[in-house]
Amino acid sequence: MPLTLYDIEVSSRLLLGTARYPSPAILAEAIRRSGTEILTVSLRRETAGGKAGGAFFQLVKDLGMHVLPNTAGCHSASEAVLTARMAREIFSTNWIKLEVIGHQDTLQPDVFGLVDAARILNQEGFQVFPYTTDDLVVGEKLLAAGCSVLMTWCAPIGSAMGPQNKTALRAMRAEFPDIPLIVDAGIGRPSHATTVMELGYDAVLLNTAVAGALDPPMMAQAFAGAITAGQKAYQAGMLEPRDMAVPSTPVIGKGVFA
Amino acid sequence: MMLIVNGEPEDCPATTLAELLIALEYEGDWLATAVNGDLVHREDRPRHQLKQGDRIEILSPMQGG
Question: Is A58 a residue whose pLDDT tops 80?
Answer without folding.
Answer: yes
